[in-house]
Amino acid sequence: MGRVFNFSAGPAMLPEEVLKTAAAEMLDYNGSGMSVMEMSHRSATFKGIIETAEQDIRDLMSIPDNYRVLFLQGGATQQFAAIPMNLMRNKVADYIVSGNWSKKAFKEAKLYGTANLVASSEDENFTRVPDFDSAAFSPDADYVYICQNETVYGTRYTHLPETGDIPLVSDVSSMFLSEPVDVSKYGLIYGGVQKNVGPAGVVIVIVRDDLIREDVLPFTPTIMRYKTQADAGSLSNTPPAYGIYVCGLVFKWLKEQGGLEAMQKRNQEKAALLYDYLDQSKLFSGTAQKEFRSLMNVPFVTGDADLDAKFIAEAKARGLESLKGHRSVGGMRASIYNAMPREGVEALVAFMEEFEKNNA
Ligand code: PMP
Questions:
Q1: Range of 267's domain?
Q2: How far is the CA of 77 from the centre of ligand 1 (A)?
Q3: What is the structure's pLDDT at 309?
Q4: Where are the N6-(pyridoxal phosphate)lysine residues found in this chain (predicted)?
Q5: Given this model, what pLDDT does residue 162 score?
Q6: Does 253 participate in catalysis according to the annotation?
Q7: Whether residues 188 and 105 fall in one domain
Q8: Residue of the nearest CA to atom 12 in ligand 1?
Q9: Mutation choice for ligand 1 from 95, 151, 178, CB with most ligand atoms inside 8 A
């Protein structure tokens, strides 16, 4: 079998052109006589790679000059701790919980200070983003935290909370670089790259200058202080060098595709193919409330666990891979990130139509 359409929530598909470039450069990167995997992170060649990667993501996201871009390790989960450690000066933060990832971040923050739950949609099984009222934010909050696209439940924010002078912190792991964003609306945006941007092992943190400070919680490990990494250009210790290189290739690919406006259009079209089918299907139904549907993660069910299992197995035999839903939701989930071609979604919808006919 050749390459499959991989609907995994992450690690996920990467653009084939990027994989081919990485393969071609595997043994000898740009005349260096070595792979990027083998290269000193202090070499001029690697310095060129990380600086170009940073410039390219700055161009793609129009990142203002007063924000720093950090290429870090520890996954998005480590940021659940790093964010309160670095940002909690009054030791107060407000969390909106719209799914299991924001719930985990909220739980972690409680270890370091007062984390307030200002809104939650858990009582609606996280099928939507909860209503939130800006007046409910604590006046002394160090930040307001959201997860802008909840990967498991397939929901996304339709508008951002108005936080005034309180910095807004957003986990964009499962929607990174899938559409344009106004970085200036946030104090900090971050995401693990293994869904939309690159191989697992890199987390990118985009943080406003004034939030990179010395007066972090005193027990914050040196390596987890944003100041340590910002001062060192993400090279305080050995960075995830190969992963950063592949992210850089993806940034170039995104630029060639026309940037984030073009990706948004393509992603909207792909998601519409799937949602339009789900909305008229008599067998399958989407689990997220319509208004809050994610463009990236599409959970759906038949309502019969045995039939779901049959669907997943038959889909796999057709080269439609990793459609099993997260264990907390069950059913199916199709993750259709930037690198999933339209043909992949078309093949999925065609198979769903066929399966529906055969299992009516
Ligand atoms: N946040 C979101 C929205 C996620 O989808 C995930 C991973 N699926 C995480 C955080 C945790 O990421 P990591 O495994 O890189 O720690």
A1: 259-358
A2: 6
A3: 97
A4: 195
A5: 95
A6: no
A7: yes
A8: 76
A9: 151
91 with 131, same domain?
yes
Residue with tokens 């599409």: 298
253 is in an annotated binding site: no
Whose tokens are 């890199």? That residue is 202
CATH of the domain at 93: 3.40.640.10
Instruction: Count the domains in the chain.
Output: 2
Residue 325 pLDDT: 95
* Residue 327 confidence (pLDDT): 87
CB 70 within 8 A of CB 204: yes
Q: Is 4 a domain residue?
A: no
Q: In terms of domains, do 174 and 215 share one?
A: yes
Do residues 350 and 283 share a domain? yes
- In sequence order, the β-bridge partners of residue 329 are none
Backbone angles phi, psi at 332, to 5 degrees: -120, 160
Whether 221 and 263 map to the same domain: the answer is: no
Question: How far apart are the C-alpha atoms of 297 and 150, rounded to whole Å?
Answer: 8
In whole angstroms, what is the distance from residue 332 CA to residue 327 CA?
10
Which of 207, 224, 256 terminates a domain? The answer is 256
101 is in an annotated binding site: yes
- Site residues for ligand 1, CB cut-off 6 Å: 9-10, 75-77, 101, 147, 151, 171, 173-174, 192
State the pLDDT at residue 1.
60
Q: Is 171 annotated as a binding residue?
A: yes
Q: What's residue 154's pLDDT?
A: 98
Does some domain include residue 156?
yes
Determine if residue 73 is labeled as part of a ligand binding site: no
Mutate to test the pocket of ligand 1, among 8, 72, 73, 77 (most ligand atoms within 8 A of CB): 77
CA-to-CA dists, residue 302 to 286, 297, 316, 322, angstroms: 9, 17, 17, 17
For the chain (length 360 residues), average pLDDT per consecutive 10? 92 98 98 98 98 98 98 98 97 97 98 98 97 93 98 97 96 98 98 97 98 96 98 97 98 98 98 98 97 98 96 97 93 98 98 96
Instruction: Please report the ipTM that was assigned to this predicted complex.
Output: 0.99
The residue from 94, 142, 195, 253 that is catalytic is 195
